[in-house]
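Encoded backbone
================
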Amino acid sequence: MSTMHVQVVTPERVVVSRDAEMVIARALDGDIGILPRHIPLITVLAPGVVRVKGGGGETRIAVGGGFMEVSADSSVTILAETAELGTEIDIDRARLAKDRALKRLAEQDKLHIDVQRSEIALRKALARLEASGKDQ
């Protein structure tokens, strides 16, 4: 099977740089799958999990939003605001962030909070838990 080169980059570091057979990411209008020889594309990513498949395994990365570019040479570059490998995620911290966001959303009428900001925080926490494999 043919492969493509995939890089996931944040302002701080290169999170992933490897060959893959498939990339699945969450765009604003839903999940998108990229295979080698995909047409060139640039899309905005929503907070979610990027799955990089190949070499008999899968790497899961929690991404806090960003952009994905698929080049004519089949390379995939993801420029993310934040990105963490599933194996790097602090599960307790992610669960606390999820609980905090759910609490703020439940009390939104009393607190006059920024609902959109709380919803984004919740999506990021859920993505981190999903990428870690501990999404309960």
About this structure: The CA atoms of residues 37 and 73 lie 7 Å apart. The domain at 4-86 is CATH 2.60.15.10 (ATP Synthase; domain 1). The chain is about 30% helix and 40% strand. The chain has a mean pLDDT of 86.
